[in-house]
Write a structure and sequence with these properties.
With 302 residues, the chain is an alpha/beta fold. 24% of the residues lie in helices and 15% in strands. The chain has seven helices and twelve strands. It has helices spanning 90-105, 108-116, 141-150, 174-177, 200-205, 223-231, 272-289; strands at 2-5, 21-24, 38-41, 61-63, 81-83, 133-137, 156-161, 169-170, 183-186, 211-214, 236-239, 259-261. Strands 8-7-6-9-10-11-12 form a seven-stranded parallel sheet, with helices on both faces. A five-stranded parallel sheet has the order 2-1-3-4-5, covered by helices on one side. α1 packs across α3 (141-150). The chain starts with a strand and ends in a 13-residue tail after the last helix. The model has no long low-confidence stretch (mean pLDDT 94).
Length: 302
């Protein structure tokens, strides 16, 4: 079983999989060797050149290391399975969410600005997570990890899913539950249904002073509508993703008040690649033994 992987040191973990022939591929510069034999591709991370999956007659599986697979929509040949990197980024992203909520609530960006300006100010109004009402839109593994980490802080957590399963709110209820939230955390995949989900009308339903945290994808939020709310001083935001992305130099969002911005690093940690290749190894074992694969993306999306 020929497997193409990016040039990650942790790919050595795949050498122990019986029957797996692992080849490192410089996807940005050239196609891999033996395209007629490759059966599994682990594409490079977001930000790299997109892989052309055509002309690979034996390709069976595209296993991403990312939780989101929107960049592969409509690009996977018929008969080829697409699987996402489930469980790879749960820890890092959930910690990022907690970090930016705490930083925003405790006005750390403002105090950092004052430090750079050599200004001693005590004028900012801090907020607590104790008894805060946090609405998590997207109750997958990362959403559950965020909810677990909020528990010790004494926050009141509610969750939104597509259908309202297991005691969650359905996505159709979002307009009615947004006004009660002190913090709204976006963790949904980017699909036709979620693109532009937080538009001007939805943002207007959020309470004054509420914090919007986007760790999903930039286009889930309408950038112009959010920036208008930030400049009005009505909402706050912490974004790890933007639309457009990367955010171009000179874009007005850079200077929007009340915004904490990071460059799509929520899933970054020294350990995520190791977790990713542990998942790939398990998937290869399943493929070899004919067992069901994990985290398969179906025709209907996630």
């Amino acid at each position: 079983m020929l497997v193409w992987v990016p040039d990650h040191a942790e790919a050595d973990r795949l050498q122990s999989v019986e029957g797996a022939e692992v080849k490192r591929v410089s996807f940005d510069r050239e196609p891999g060797d033996d395209p007629d034999r490759v059966e599994v591709i682990v594409p490079p991370p977001v930000g790299s050149k997109q892989v052309d999956f055509g002309g690979l007659p034996r390709l069976r599986l595209v296993q991403t290391l990312s939780a989101g697979v929107d960049r592969y929509a409509g690009r996977i040949p018929a008969g080829v399975t697409l699987a996402r990197g489930g469980g790879v980024h749960d820890i890092a992203v959930s910690e990022w969410v907690l970090a930016v909520i705490l930083a925003s609530n405790r006005c750390l960006p403002e105090h950092r600005d004052d430090q750079h300006a050599h200004r001693w100010e005590r004028m900012y109004e801090a907020r607590e997570l104790q008894d805060a009402r946090v609405l998590i839109v997207g109750a997958g593994a990362i959403g559950q990890a965020v909810a677990e980490r909020l528990g010790p802080f004494g926050s009141h957590v509610a969750m939104v899913t597509r259908t309202g399963r297991d005691g969650t709110h359905a996505i159709a209820e979002l307009p009615s539950v947004l006004p009660d939230a002190d913090v709204v955390v976006l963790l949904v995949p980017l699909t036709d249904e979620t693109r532009g989900l937080l538009d001007a009308d939805m943002l207007a339903r959020m309470g004054d002073g509420a914090l919007l945290v986007n760790a999903a994808r930039g286009p889930v939020v309408v950038t112009e509508a959010l920036e208008a709310e930030l400049r009005a001083g009505r909402l706050r935001a912490a974004l790890d993703v933007t639309d457009p992305e990367p955010l171009p130099p000179g874009h007005t969002l850079w200077d929007a008040p009340g915004l904490l911005l990071t460059p799509h690093v929520g899933g970054s940690s020294p350990r995520w690649v190791a977790r990713g290749y542990d998942l790939v190894a398990d998937q290869l074992e399943r493929l070899r033994e004919g067992r069901p694969l994990r985290y398969v993306v179906g025709d209907g999306g996630y």
